[in-house]
Amino acid sequence: MGEFDLIAKYFDRPVRRSPLGIGDDCALLQPAPGMQLAVTSDMLVEGRHFLSTVDPRWLGHKSLAVNLSDPGAAGARPLAFTLSLALPSADAAWLAGFSEGLLALADAHGCELVGGDTTRGPLCINITAFGEVPAGRALLRSGARAGDDLWVSGTLGDARLALEAFRGRISLPQAIFDAARVRMEQPQPRVALGQALVGVATSAIDISDGLLGDLAHILQRSGVGASVNAACAPQLLAATAAGLQLDEAVVRELVLAGGDDYELAFTAPASQRAAVEAAGAQAGTRVTRIGAIDAGPGLRVLDAGGRALAQDFAGFDHFR
Ligand code: ADP
Ligand code: MG
């Protein structure tokens, strides 16, 4: 199968957003009047970002999901994306699974594949996504203000729990492993929530590297500090709710520093609590208030009594 046959067979579908569809030198995109284009790119490399054993369908899903997570965090509506693929060989079964998972998520978000590049090489997937957001209203990392509440969407830590199980460092009951694996392999980008938070949240980021690490980006860009209530951790790890018994410190590490969650961390004034809850309800996504933004710099993790925890989350080396 040649390069052009491969593209025609697996990736070329009718496109409404670009008048040319796939196949010309460039795709042409037109954001609606009053909207800004929001552009983001993420690369996935075998061994680094995914296990070589992953079902190609879920790899296709996740490749786009991690890219739609960023427009979600900006409050943008995804419009289109490009796909650059390096493939060791044109494996028909792999391509069928990968394109199926990829395009199913694309369809679910009304986000169209408008172009890309295909080459032979070690398996590597790069996607660039284009979204639109009302001009000047995108959610940024820089908008957090002292006194704001700190919120997260969904649950945290289960993707990392599954990874640790895959690595054989932790053993899980089958049902919990299956559920955690879905979180790891099939993240759902919080695109609807992000859009619902425009005009409500003051800042947002998507959690890819772990809550505390990504929150640090908001703090740095906004010139503020934060206090995080670690007592929220057990209620944020879905596996704990499902009956998994784990050491408290491990639960905190998974939730606060686990990574690969693709949930949103965001801030909003206390006066917007009802509006945040309404945005969560509208998007069908749980939102949990986990702390507050402080005027002074630094990130404090507090226990239920409000005392700072000594636990060091920076390295998250519990399993190493
Ligand atoms: P160029 O010579 O301009 O780089 P290519 O020959 O690489 O173009 O690609 C031909 C067309 O197919 C272009 O419109 C390109 O956007 C599209 N394309 C290539 N690879 C992919 C892919 N993996 N997914 C979607 N479209 C692709
Ligand atoms: Mg090319």
Could you give a quick summary of the protein structure above?
This protein has 320 residues and is α+β, with helices and mostly antiparallel strands. The chain contains eleven helices and ten strands.
What ligands can be seen in this structure? adenosine-5'-diphosphate, magnesium ion
The CATH architecture of the largest domain: Alpha-Beta Complex
Distance between the ends: 43 Å
Task: Figure out the total of helices.
Answer: 11
Q: What is the SS-derived class? A: alpha+beta
* Overall radius of gyration: 20 Å
Number of domains: 2
Largest sheet, in brief, is: 6 strands, mixed
Return the string of H and E elements: HEHEHEEEHHHEHEHHHEHEE
Helical content (DSSP H or I, runs of 4+): 25-40%
Global geometry: globular
Uncertain residue ranges: 315-320
Q: Could you name the CATH homologous superfamily of the largest domain?
A: PurM-like C-terminal domain
**Overall CATH class of the largest domain:** Alpha Beta
- Stated plainly, the CATH topology of the largest domain is called Phosphoribosyl-aminoimidazole Synthetase, Chain A, domain 2
The mean pLDDT is 94
For the biggest β-sheet, the strand order reads 6-8-5-9-7-10
- Quaternary organisation of the protein chains: single chain
Share of residues in strands = 15-25%
Q: Please give the number of β-strands.
A: 10
